[in-house]
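Supplementary Methods, section 5.1.

A reviewer requested that the exact input to the structure prediction be made available. We therefore reproduce it here, unchanged from the version used in the analyses.
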Amino acid sequence: MTLRQGIRTVSTRSSDDRLFAARREAIADFRFGADVAQVFDDMLSRSVPFYGEIQRMIAELALDIVEPGSNVYDLGCSTGTTMLLLDRDLPEDVNFVGVDDSRDMLEKCEEKLRSNGVKRNVALRCADLNSGVEMADASLVLMVLTLQFLRPLHREKLIADIFAGLRENGGLILVEKVLGEDSHFNRLFIKHYYDYKRRNGYSETEIAQKREALENVLIPYKLLENRELLLKSGFRYVDVFFKWYNFCGIVAIK
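The structure derived from this sequence is encoded token-by-token as follows.
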């Protein structure tokens, strides 16, 4: 397992997400720093509907797509949850490459993989996906709640880089928060999503402050816009494997 210099060893324990519980006078743009990395697993489990089921479905689809001796890239790997799940069932000669622009996330990822006994070849890279990505011999690329954080101007190039680095019949699994296809449904979906967060213990203050922090950082597309982006980049087959209001999972095959 390799990582760029400067990564420190950190605890794998995820604290409860209370980042936005205290009222703030000013809300800064959301950043994936040390404070977020510490609570990120709890944040995802309480903020992403059916997150565990999405991960299980990703693992199932990976078994259908991944070829022995190939590379699997997790772009925006955060704390390594998806790689950890895939490690259980994929052939030992499949290599993992995790890419994230947050060193704090990569620290958490490295320690989580190590503490859970992952033995396969894993390379972790600190890189900004807005600048594209260098890939080779990939049979599967994962972008789990990642593309939405890239500037729209750079998304087409990144998808093109992914397509170029995939083997024939290789796949891309994309999980995104999406806009409704019209404003009526978009309002309904967002309302029901905030109800979901309330059921998981988030207060009105936490919901409102996080929404403001994400406003200029998370820029979602419509589901059909994501689909057209993939088809335009050359993918032969594109389908939806998961949908819950304003969250979706898409699988595309080269």
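The two ends are 29 Å apart (CA to CA). These observations are discussed further in the main text.
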